[in-house]
What does this fold into?
Amino acid sequence: MTRSGAEALSLLAAPLHVHALEALQQGPMELLELHQAVGSPPESTIRMYTRKLDDLGLLERRRRQEFPATAEYRLTPAGDSLLTVASLLHDWLREAPGGPIQLGSIAGKSGTKALIGGWSSSIVRALAACPLSLTELSMLIPRSNYPSLGRKLGAMRSAKLLEPQPGDSRGTPYGATEWLRRAVIPLTAAIAWELKFLPEQTAAISPRDVEALFLLAIPLMSLAPEVTGRCRLAVEIRSGEPSTYAGVLLSIERGAVASCSSNLQGETHASVSGPPVAWVRQMNGGPRGQLDVSGNQSLAGTVTTALREIPKT
It folds into this structure.
């Protein structure tokens, strides 16, 4: 199942897409110029890739009026904006535990595809919460068959998105590496891009996506020792009567997160809520002031600022 953000990351996992968008950022090009700029792959290949980008509205094909009437390709606002996502993905890849990885390389493709596989299969959601073995994962994610789950888990291990953890359960438990947790930056950027440019063509953000993003990010927060209280972080998945929310309920003691639950019910000192686009912008350094806050304003502001200031590298 494809999840929100996966389409944008899949586009950037293909080196030729990245090279074509970067080349067109310099200005309009005829197909022959673009073909040469991206390394002269087979003509059928460059036509297939440019058609994909054209169909999604990332570039546009215009025919010049002067003689001879040749066609040229131009980057659209959607294509230009995707390059911002590409920059954040590149920053993340360069911090890979095994050494810097270049976006648009074979290693960059493998690492990004491993992340997409884990994200779309809900492995990221499960292991962001706690370490689990493949057997435990298969019971938690019953809609995925065991061999497929095993292959995705293996790809994530090879990419160093996961690492073995001590445990006495059947099989080896694997947990999220800090590098996987930092993938929350390109993931939220990819989701924000889809919400803006492909809202009708890509998967809507789901409760599992929301929970996964918070569970990845929260261990990376830096809070002062005096911060204590219970804070609800809620994303409005569906508006209406009643609205549907997903998120987490945090219990913070002396600057440390004592508990984090996806059950939003319970007493809180502060609550922060808003639509998906406001949250992904908040978590990715976008405009402030788009979330609704109730209760202890100081606690709410401290938590949302800590999420916003998670180091990108």
Notes: The longest helix spans residues 77-93.
